Amino acid sequence: MIGFLGKKADRNKGKRTIEHSEAQKKELMPEISEVSQIGARESQQDSYYHSDLSDYVLAHEKGILAVVADGMGGLANGAEISGIVTASMKEYFSKVPFSEDVSSELVKMIHVANQDARKYIRNTSGDVSGSTVVAVDFIDGKLYFASVGDSRIYLVRRGGMIQLNREHVYIRDLLMDKASGNIGMDEFMKNNEKKALTHFIGMDELDQIDFNLNPVKILPHDKVVLMTDGVFGTLSENEMCKAMRMSADNAARRIDECIAGKKKPTQDNYTALIMDFN
User: Fold this and answer.
1) Backbone angles phi, psi at 95, to 5 degrees
2) What is the pLDDT of residues 240-278, one digit of tens each?
């Protein structure tokens, strides 16, 4: 499904059978739930998508794809760009043959989404515009991910949360400068651009995409959560962990209730997509 506001196939052996997919249905089919709300903003600029869980052949050949994109509210057409990202990645996943290298396919998907976003920008106002994106593909019991920007992917295991991806934010560059002695503590502390994105969908040259070469083995009772900064910028890790003790549906509901309950006057759009492997 697409929300707006919203293994590998063996080419020598041919397609795997539906019967094989049925036999592995429990392994391949996590429960997926999501919450996506406008917050205190005038419009929703988050978008999300996950592949059809009932399509067992697609899940067995290519996996289960989940994507969350966050249009950049400070720039023009953020909602349109995030929607293009999810639609482009859905199109690629549905129609383009996969190689055996799932990581490279995710990276290709993001490059194609960036090309589609750049085309839209050129054909409209031409103004700077952009979106973050986090994407995962679960196949053969393993999780592959790729991301650009500051949205996050978490693995929830045994009551704790582990962030899988690295964010493309200026504070990382500042920390490197500080560690190498190029800037001092005062300069680091006074810099007001720590949260600024250094890479995002919509850039002319997208030369930094975070991804994992070695997939994450998913264990029973794990959860994987894709979220925008409207979620992790509002809820503490402890609040998130408490929500993740619940089923996917109840966890999504709890996240929504917790964020709404804080009544932040500047609450950003917020989206969380939860894959539950119970």
Assistant:
1) -120, -25
2) 999 999 999 999 999 999 999 999 999 999 999 999 998
Using the structure block, give the residue that is written with the tokens 């973050």: 132
E-strand ranges in the chain read 2-4, 31-37, 46-50, 64-71, 131-139, 142-148, 152-157, 160-163, 210-211, 216-217, 223-227, 270-276
Contact between residue 275 and residue 65 where contact means Cβ atoms under 8 Å apart: no
Separation CA 247–CA 31 (nearest Å): 9
Q: Give all domains of the chain, ordered by start, each with its CATH number.
A: 2-276 (3.60.40.10)
What number of other Cβ atoms are within 10 A of residue 30's Cβ? 21
Whether 25 has a pLDDT exceeding 50, the answer reads no
Q: Is the Cα dihedral 157, 3, 135, 153 positive or negative?
A: negative
| DSSP secondary structure of 227-265 | E-HHHHTTS-HHHHHHHHTS-HHHHHHHHHHHHHHH--T
Q: Note the pLDDT tens digit of each residue in 61-116.
A: 999 999 999 998 766 688 999 999 999 999 999 999 998 899 999 999 999 999 99
**Nearest residue to 199 via CA among 110, 274, 268:** 110
Query: What is the C-alpha separation between 250 and 248, in angstroms, rounded?
Result: 6
The answer to whether 197 and 228 are in contact (CB under 8 A) is no
Cβ proximity of 115 and 76 under 8 Å: no
Token output for 255: 């996240």
